[in-house]
Design brief:
Oligomer: single chain
Order of helices and strands: HEEHHHHEEE
Helix content: 25-40%
Distance between the termini: 46 Å
Shape: globular
CATH superfamily: PAS domain
Strand order of the largest sheet: 2-1-5-4-3
Number of strands: 5
Number of domains: 1
Radius of gyration: 16 Å
CATH architecture: 2-Layer Sandwich
Strand content: 15-25%
Length: about 120
């Protein structure tokens, strides 16, 4: 059970989690060992996995075709420099174009958002 504030409202952290869980934009977070520490339902759908099947798993083990790809180069750049990146790349195993925004931070991959693109343009 979640603690409520004296006025009966949910704590801000719970409200934030509910908002992220409900948002249609895919989102995942990686830890320092490249493990998924958070995946919202939209992110799991886009990656064609279940949330529970990704949590705690290393991104490169789950998506080995991404090793050495533009995804790996860009995520490693964020981890190394802390600079944000935005890029678009095709991922053949999922037959999908991804637009990736990785915000500033030194966590490998950081907080990553991906938008599904079925066609370029």
């Amino acid at each position: 059970m979640t603690a409520m504030s004296p006025d009966g409202a949910a704590p801000p952290a719970d409200l934030l989690r509910q908002a992220v869980e409900a948002m249609p934009r895919p989102l995942f977070v990686l830890d320092h060992d490249w493990r998924f520490s958070y995946v919202n339902p939209a992110g799991a759908r886009l990656l064609r996995r279940r949330v529970g099947d990704l949590l705690g798993r290393v991104i490169w083990a789950e998506f080995p075709e991404a090793v050495g790809s533009e995804f790996a180069r860009q995520y490693e750049h964020v981890a190394r420099t802390g600079e944000p990146v935005a890029f678009e790349s095709w991922y053949p195993p999922l037959r999908t174009w991804f637009h990736v925004d990785a915000p500033r931070g030194r966590r490998p991959g950081g907080h990553l958002r991906r938008r599904h693109r079925t066609a370029r343009g």
